[in-house]
Amino acid sequence: MELCVIKGDGIGQEVVPVALRVLRQVIPDLSVTYADAGWDTFERTGNALPAETVQQAAHVKAVLFGACDSPPYEVAGYSSPIVKLRRAMQTHANLRPTRFLPVPTAREGIDLVVVRENTEDLYIGDEHTAGDGNTGTATKLITRKATERIAHTAFQLALSEGRKRVTIVHKGNVLPQTDGLFRRVCFEVAREYPDIESDELLVDTAAYWMVKDPARFDIVLTSNLYGDILSDMAAAWGGGLGLAPALNLGSDVAIAEPVHGTAPDIAGKGVANPTAVVLSAAMLVRHHWKQPDVADRIERAVYEALREGDYTADILGGNGKSTEAFADTICGKLN
Ligand code: NAI
Ligand code: MG
């Protein structure tokens, strides 16, 4: 088993080693290579995602990614490395599950997966500013090919996990040429899966229900931007961003990557919660390396560690122990 590890910036440096420690414990012959990406890399080399990193990731086909700082304003030559890497590796799906975890901030009964299209929509980054500097436009790309691919992923996941319903989320009433196409193609694919129920929600209504009654969702099938937003909302019900895992999945490649970012407010303090990245690694083991028993072991250990109240992050109101101490607890429960 081979893994390319990209820690990135901020708490990525602190939490990724925990996931690696867990993986090494359950897969003793794991072979690991390291690669660089992120803001720090950009400042050192002028490139946030060096070509060697992409080559290495594509060669190894399995990546564990922390998070990278991206400023919310334009910096010449800089763009989000993870968005580029997802496209370069053709990880067409981003699976973002939220399940109940035994922490005070989580909601009982929640068990959903946001299946987010990962290669197009506004995330292609085709933006322009008009000559006067006061008008910006962005291209929203939706294609039949990518929509069919993500819809099949969602329905296949429903079948493999014994789930009952896929909810297609879009804004087809306002954007019939793009979201309307997404909706139409998703329903076409849905007809090939008669045993799985399918329904639809406009994205604003979906956001309302995600706040009011998140347990009503099973699989949410949606485009890139809506999936980004709805999965962060769902993460709040799962206990917080420090607990929310994700997996970018292609036909024979995968990037495990927590939903959270670099958490500059707590970076360097050794208190970041490693749960999200450890559970992301478990998803890689389950869906890419196809070792569900090993993934179950990791998830059970995390669940038991959380149940002991040994978690760390401020957003969880834990008992103030460190990332390191929590890693010890998880590893002690792996059996
Ligand atoms: P964030 O996810 O980094 O932080 C939001 C809040 O959640 C903060 O209060 C943070 O302390 C907390 N938090 C996040 N992860 C945590 C953990 N593991 N344990 C405990 N608390 C945790 O989002 P924010 O602040 O919007 O973004 C910070 C930077 O991260 C930005 O530069 C952004 O571009 C980048 N980012 C990168 C991503 C990636 O590379 N995949 C994804 C999201 C954001
Ligand atoms: Mg996000």
Q: Summed up, what is this model?
A:
This protein is an alpha/beta fold and 335 residues long. The protein has helices at 12-26, 39-45, 51-60, 81-88, 144-160, 179-190, 203-212, 224-237, 275-288, 292-307, 323-333; strands at 2-8, 31-34, 62-67, 93-99, 111-117, 127-129, 136-138, 165-170, 197-202, 219-222, 247-249, 254-256.
CATH homologous superfamily annotation of the largest domain? Isopropylmalate Dehydrogenase
Which ligands appear in the coordinates? 1,4-dihydronicotinamide adenine dinucleotide, magnesium ion
- Average of the residue pLDDT scores: 94
Q: What percent of residues are in strands?
A: 15-25%
Q: Helical percent range? A: 40-55%
Which shape, going by the Cα principal axes? Answer: globular
CATH-defined architecture of the largest domain: 3-Layer(aba) Sandwich
Number of strands: 12
According to CATH, the fold-level topology of the largest domain is Isopropylmalate Dehydrogenase
Main sheet specs: 10 strands, mixed
Total tally of structural domains = 2
How would you portray this structure in words?
This protein has helices at residues 12-26, 39-45, 51-60, 81-88, 144-160, 179-190, 203-212, 224-237, 275-288, 292-307, 323-333, and strands spanning 2-8, 31-34, 62-67, 93-99, 111-117, 127-129, 136-138, 165-170, 197-202, 219-222, 247-249, 254-256. It is of the alpha/beta class and 335 residues long. It folds into 2 domains: 1-91 and 242-335, Isopropylmalate Dehydrogenase, CATH 3.40.718.10; 111-236, Isopropylmalate Dehydrogenase (3-Layer(aba) Sandwich). It has a 10-stranded mixed sheet, sandwiched between helices. A two-stranded antiparallel ribbon has the order 6-7. α7 (203-212) runs parallel beside α8 (224-237). The protein is globular, with a radius of gyration of 19 Å. The structure holds 1,4-dihydronicotinamide adenine dinucleotide and magnesium ion. 1,4-dihydronicotinamide adenine dinucleotide is lined by residues 11, 15, 67-70, 82, 241-242, 257, 260-266, 272-273, 276, 313, 315.
